[in-house]
UniProtKB/TrEMBL annotation:
Membrane topology annotation: Multi-pass membrane protein
Stored InterPro entries: Beta-barrel_TonB, Beta-barrel_TonB_sf, Plug_dom, Plug_dom_sf, TonB-dep_rcpt-like
Record localization: Cell outer membrane
Keywords: Cell outer membrane, Ion transport, Membrane, Receptor, Signal, TonB box, Transmembrane, Transmembrane beta strand, Transport
Lineage start: Bacteria, Pseudomonadati, Pseudomonadota, Gammaproteobacteria, Oceanospirillales
Keyword presence, Ion transport: yes
Limits of the TonB-dependent receptor plug domain: 40-146
Protein name: TonB-dependent receptor domain-containing protein
Start and end residues of each TonB-dependent receptor-like beta-barrel domain: 170-587
Length: 614
């Protein structure tokens, strides 16, 4: 077994050396890193862009499958599709990564994390990932990085659309429809989607043989209009209803657990060209999340979170760069009730922020810097910053270094919820340093990034339920190295990511059982990798595969979860210009593995589908 593991890692590293590139083909333009449209070559942060072609080529079943194992990203999920997931970006906590949908925050106001498992791939046009602290642009929550999801839209005049249906193992079914129409000035797009399945038994402790099924359905709508040459306006909406079964939901543990509810986000944007070198942008957004929990058929709790946000930004274009000034406001509110009649001691918060950013090019030298000031109604004020420098070593090579600070205010649930809260928690603060080397030539691109992040007063749940509580670890340190690479040709597309990291507790001033200096942070692997390869045999047939490999990790209760490697296979046949047939086999070798101790994962899974485009 050890020999096989070493051989697997050797294969991945050799592949990386042969194909080095950013783990995703980088588009010419991205907006997430600094909250403004920029050429990818002008962005000094470590980024990944996944577009619609990448999504369809991968045949990923969920956004979790799409993101898992990419540079700096690992995800744990407690059972079958639709169950709770946790995202760890560069070894940070799941609530240390900010997630946006069309610019609107979708992190929960209670837990602080985002329900990635509920975001539908059918409605996604593009995903931008920025690794490293971005608090100077976005404020709280962006310690590990930012993931922004852009919903689908049409770019060509006239009408385009499509229908897709597929069926797979565990009685899984998917249906989706998408249409976009309009002219050069006005564009309207909409999508509908549905997915359900019997799933699989979530926990090993449940020996009844029952399956934990899931269902989700929703819609997405977008409208954009150019009023004149200087004014553009757009609005977007996304709604998803969900219901999922899971296990181990109460104390003592019950295996008959159901969560149901919805997620919805609404966003609007107005862009005004005030002068040739001066642009103003006004944004507004609203987010709702509702979750109802039922144990053994009885409602236990109903939680609703609501968020409103507005922003104003001014951009000033210079001969050799850009300056940005902006202000924003955010208000969170929670409605909660449970069987015991408990409620949050405090159920709302608001935040005001002001920020500025500059970027300059001086020949082979490039500089960028940003500062932000936040005033939180629960924690007072925080100042964060980011500075970066890059040098164009040759026409194809670039070296760079950056430093950034960030913070994460404890969530309302951590401090004032009903599950052993701790109102004395301090805000988490981080200081991060990274250096990179990037190479780009034609279809071949490469990036190697070394990083270190020190997080003070890191919040973790310590102890054993129901007697545990949330506490501040004095300091955690995460060091790592990311290799991302690949080739994007006419027929062959390959992307590789390899991450080495050391996420550990550095100091701990309390003798509370279960935490000590030198321990690895829970549910993090020390090294992991992903290799995607797709080959177009001719104009009709294509084949592809994804290989995931993760080293062992420490799960809750100190239990070690073994490392694993999983292979997915896929193929597609373009029968006519309008009709495509596809098939995939996930976990092709039926590997038994775990993401979280005590929870099952997907056995071999087979799915076939048909897509109609017009």
């Amino acid at each position: 077994m050890l020999h096989k593991k070493n051989l697997l890692w050797l294969t991945l590293v050799v592949a990386g050396s042969a194909q080095a590139q950013g783990d995703q083909r980088l588009s010419d333009l991205q907006v997430t890193a600094n909250r403004l449209p920029q050429s990818q070559s002008d962005v000094l942060a470590s980024t990944t862009v996944i577009d619609r072609d990448d999504i369809e080529r991968s045949q990923a079943g969920s956004i979790i499958d799409l993101l898992q194992g990419r540079a700096g990203i690992e995800i744990a999920q407690n059972g079958s599709p639709g169950t709770t997931s946790s995202l760890f970006m560069r070894g940070t906590e799941s609530d240390h990564s900010l997630v946006l949908v069309d610019g609107v925050r979708v992190n929960s106001a209670t837990s602080g994390g985002a329900s990635l498992e509920m975001l539908p791939l059918e409605a996604i046009e593009r995903i931008e990932i920025v690794r490293g602290p971005r608090a100077a642009a976005y404020g709280a929550d962006a310690i590990g990085g930012v993931i922004q999801v852009f919903t689908r839209h049409g770019t060509d005049t006239g009408t385009q659309g499509g229908l897709k249906a597929s069926a797979g193992s565990d009685s899984t079914q998917r249906q989706s429809a998408w249409v976009a129409t309009g002219d050069d000035d006005t564009r309207l797009n909409a999508s509908l989607f549905h997915r359900d399945g019997d799933g699989f038994n979530a926990t090993q402790a449940d020996d009844s043989g029952e399956r934990d099924g899931f269902e989700r359905e929703g819609a997405q709508l977008g409208l954009s209009h150019r009023i004149n040459d200087d004014v553009d306006v757009s609005v977007n909406a996304l709604r998803q209803n969900f219901e999922g079964e899971y296990d181990n939901c109460s104390f003592p543990a019950s295996q008959d657990c159901v969560t149901k509810g919805y997620l919805q986000s609404f966003g609007g944007q107005l862009d005004v060209q005030l002068q040739p070198d001066w642009q103003m942008q006004i944004t507004a957004g609203h987010f709702d999340e509702q979750r109802e929990e039922r144990y053994d058929g009885e409602r236990q709790s109903l939680t609703e979170t609501h968020r409103d946000e507005v922003g104003l930004q001014h951009r000033f274009t210079r001969d050799n760069g850009v300056d940005v000034l902006g202000v924003d406001y955010r208000h969170d509110n929670i409605d909660f009730n449970n069987r015991a009649g408990e409620s949050y001691q405090k159920d709302s918060r608001e935040n005001y922020g002001i920020y500025g950013m500059m970027q300059r090019n001086y020949g082979a030298h490039e500089l960028s810097g940003s500062l932000r000031y936040d005033d939180d109604s629960l924690f007072g004020d925080k100042a964060t910053g980011n500075a970066a420098y890059a040098y164009q070593l040759t026409q194809n090579q670039r070296l760079g270094v950056s430093y950034g600070t960030a913070f994460k205010a404890p969530s309302l649930s951590d401090m004032y919820g009903t599950y052993n809260p701790n109102p004395d928690l301090d805000a988490e603060e981080s200081k991060s340093l990274e250096a990179f080397w990037a190479f780009s030539q034609g279809d071949w691109k490469t990036r190697v990034t070394a990083f270190q992040n020190r997080i003070e007063d890191m919040i973790v749940y310590t102890g054993v339920s129901p007697n545990g509580t949330y506490r501040n670890i004095d300091e955690a340190r995460i060091r790592g190295l990311e290799l991302s690479g690949g080739w994007h040709g006419e027929r062959l597309v390959t992307q590789l990511s390899v991450t080495f990291q050391d996420p550990e507790v550095r100091s701990w001033s309390d003798d509370y059982a279960g935490i000590s200096a030198g321990d690895r942070l829970l549910n993090r692997s020390e090294h992991y990798a992903r290799l995607d390869t797709d080959y177009k045999i001719n104009n009709e047939w294509s084949i592809g595969s994804t290989l995931w490999a993760f080293s062992e990790r420490t799960s809750y209760g100190g239990q070690e979860v073994g490392g694993y490697g999983v292979v997915d296979l896929r193929t597609s046949w373009q029968v006519t210009p309008m009709v495509e047939l596809s098939a995939k086999m996930e976990n092709a070798f039926d590997k038994e593995y775990q993401l979280v101790d005590g929870y099952n994962t997907q056995d071999r899974y087979v799915e076939g589908g048909v897509t109609l485009r017009f």
